[in-house]
Amino acid sequence: MSDHLFYQTRQTRPFIERAEGIYLWDAAGQRYLDGASGAMVSNVGHSHPHVLARMSAQMQSATFAYRLHFQSDIVEQFAARLAKKAPKGLDKVFFVSGGSEAVETAIKLARQATLARGEPERFKIMSRLPSYHGSTLGAVAVTGTPPFAEPFAPMMQAMPKVRAPLHYLDGLDPEDPGTAAHYLKEIEEAILAESPESLLAFLVEPVGGASTGALVPPKGYMEGLRALCDKYGLLLIYDEVMTGGGRTGTYFAADQYDAVPDMIISAKGLGGGYMPLGAVISRNDLVDDVLDHGGFLHGFTNAAMPLAAAAGMGVLDVVEEEQLCDRATRIGGVLFDRLRDLQSAYPFIGDVRGKGLLLAFELMADGQSKQVLPKELNAHVKLVNIAYENGLIIYSRRTRNGTEGDHFMICPPLITTAAQTDELVALLDKSLGQFADLYLKEVA
Length: 444
Ligand SMILES: Cc1ncc(COP(=O)(O)O)c(C=O)c1O
Known about the structure:
By secondary structure, this protein is α/β, with parallel strands linked by helices. Helices cover 39% and strands 16% of the residues.
């Protein structure tokens, strides 16, 4: 059946039959609990009747109207609602179809805004190692996952990277103000080493996504980063592709810091899996400067489709009406504690971390020294497959710069109930037990 279709590998999976709420069913009738919301996308769950109704109503009028030919009421309304969700002063919205497109948009907008202000020497985007910002070439250049960049290195302008605040590996207390100071010093040194006047922006996930496994920055880190950006004239861009849409307990994770970015990048939960959708929400004056100096040299054909905006509006309605930000905090707290219980039961769970329903655990051979499991064990693949057989979908990545270490994102839809959390944890418990029996005896 897959003679003509290809993605990253030859791996095949069962065919999807239907999806509803936090569950999906394959063509053979096997049910799966979506413990990763796809790839941290389905924040309001699958087939939500309200979202489908809004999309269906929009389909009766216009699905597509090219933005150079028509304005669209629903797109305008959606932009206004997003601007309201963003911090004060970020009122200008540019729609795209996904996260990588949104990252490209933000870095090109930053560059053109700087040109408009007469600082052509600023072109470098500093980001972190590890990090993930997308798979188009511009996004790969700012992504801190070396294996994703290596084949394409000759084709890209390498961008500077600085270590993410991996406090759990460095044995530092995230609540101690000295911890943030330690990592901020590293950033300042990196800025000075690059010559600050060549730097355009700092791109950062306010809570780490799949590359770090839900790394929460130490207290004061984001505020200190804002201060460093101001000191050296860098724009601060939050990549909220994964954290946005309520996942960390507020609509944008930006709301949890006393550090307002110059731009926010959003995707994934914005369209919630109902339509491909992304956005950049920018500081007003940056956009005005670009539009006053010849316009923004950028755009995608399918951006700002009325149907995508209707899907986004429907998802946003559900997030608000069902108070899903609060629920992410509440259910996320319960799930976090349950993951900690699993850590007590399975010593090879070396760390549990995250915020709201952006949670992860990391497997380690030794929790004390933080040693990873043997690389060739490929635990990040094996545990996912065992869970899949048990009807639980989880999402994994290599932890240490994308080359070794194994972490697993546990990020069910924000509509997940307490009873469904129990079900998820029971399936995960069973899967971890099977994984240990099958693979860890020989390692021990
Ligand atoms: C933080 C972050 N930025 C950007 C992207 C790229 O988004 P997309 O896959 O929609 O292009 C992702 C995708 O996982 C992401 O997690």
